[in-house]
Amino acid sequence: MNTASRQDRRRSLRGRIVLPVSLEFDGTTVEGGADLMDLSEYGAFLRTDADLEHGDPIRVSFAFDGNEAHQLYQGEGYVVRKLEGGVAIEFEELNEHLRVFVQRLVGIAEA
User: Fold this and answer.
1) Domain limits of the chain?
2) Domain 3-110 carries which CATH code?
3) Residue 40: CA atoms inside 13 Å, Cβ hemisphere, count?
4) pLDDT digits (tens, 9 = 90+) for 64-102
């Protein structure tokens, strides 16, 4: 499938980013278990060698220390595609910090 067709299927704009994230799946937490490669309010692509399969539930999280208190950015969803070098996930829930982060990231991508 070409890139244009793939982008037509997406429900929202994605922001490109490379950011180490922690993964939680199968009752296990893997700190720095993936690199977040792109992100939208509906999903993300994770570069990882973790043993994940289509349909697996997953939680993705990362933290920044900013001017305010330490903030946790977290999304929960499931694997929708397993590709060479990573997985595509679809979010079912984002915490408020991640929701705002995505809105800002996508706003920058649109500019």
Assistant:
1) 3-110
2) 2.40.10.220
3) 13
4) 766 566 788 999 999 999 999 999 999 999 999 999 999
